[in-house]
Amino acid sequence: MWKKCKHYEDVLLKHELLKAFRVSAFSNNDMYRGIIPWFRGQGTSNAFQRGCCLMRRYVSNVRSEDDIKNFIIDNTEIVSSQNLTPEISLRLFTPICRFWTEKPELWPFPDPYWAIYWPGGQALSRYLLNNPEVSGGRKVLDLGCGCGASAIAAKLSGASHVVANDIDPIAAIATKMNCQLNNVDPLPCVTDNMIGSKPEAWDLILLGDMFYDEGLADHLHKWLQTCISTHGTQVLIGDPGRAQFESHDIRKLLHQLAYFELPDSVKEENYGLTYSTVWCYKLQT
User: Fold this and answer.
1) CB neighbours of 216 closer than 8 A, spacing ≥ 6?
2) Is residue 159 a contact partner of residue 225, using CB atoms and an 8 Å limit?
3) Are 77 and 94 in contact (CB under 8 A)?
4) 284 HSE (CA, 13 A, CB side)
């Protein structure tokens, strides 16, 4: 997978990055026999952040954007059902796709979080579509956008400006392709790690399934609090009840906005997760 890396340092960084993501919340699910079990690992923040640069260097050195688009088309299926938002079409992994069961080492890019429609993102997108006034006319950031579903839902609901952010450049390309599927103009996609950066004046920040690692959750919480205190940003979080989220101190500061039971197919694919919830920070008095 990494034979095109030219320097030993790159190999070491890739090894560290893979260690950060290989432990999966779904490793006991027989449905995920191939690359799927790698996701939502329990890695360190240092490995995560150092891996960001390697992702961009590797992708830029190996493939053109057209090559990547063709690869995505060849290895995903257009899905618009069996989830919480049938209005939105997405290119995703399904059981008929090669890499659903293929050996992980044959995957040529960073781990494809963007190829799964995670249940937290589904709930967040459903909430935005049900309540268009939440994002209508507002400046919105979809942090850790993955497939871009929540960003697309915000735009379909009337947001004035939407930016999709993901450190994986392949996710940015997939998000633009998914915009086209839904007759949405391609959204600006930022691949810098925005967590910890100087906050911009976002009206609304969206996070779906981002609290899968305790260290990352700590960094997120600190940065989100800065965004709220500096610009009065509203923050919406979609999460299906992951242990790292439920046990984190952030839960005490959140108010439940919506609760969605997951479709049977999503329950089956996510090994024991049965619902997904949308949360927001409580108003400070």
Assistant:
1) 45, 48, 195, 210
2) no
3) yes
4) 6
pLDDT at 53 over 50: no
Handedness of CA 284, 120, 153, 34 (dihedral sign): positive
DSSP designation for 252: G
By CB atoms closer than 10 A (0-12, 13-18, 19+), residue 57 is middle
- The predicted pLDDT at position 63 comes to 66
Residue 101 has pLDDT above 90, yes or no: no
Which residue shows structure tokens 């688009």? 69
Output the pLDDT for position 61: 53
SS3 sequence of 94-159: CCCCHHHCCCHHHCCCCCCHHHCCCHHHHHHHHHHHHCHHHCCCCEEEEECCCCCHHHHHHHHCCC
Q: Read off the tokens for 160.
A: 């004035």
Give the tokens for residue 231.
Answer: 């610009």
Arithmetic mean of pLDDT, 101-116: 89
pLDDT score of 90? 98
The one-letter amino acid code at 144 reads G
Say if residue 32's pLDDT is above 90: no
Q: For residue 266, how far is the Cα from the chain centroid?
A: 16
pLDDT band for position 191 (cuts 50, 70, 90)? very high
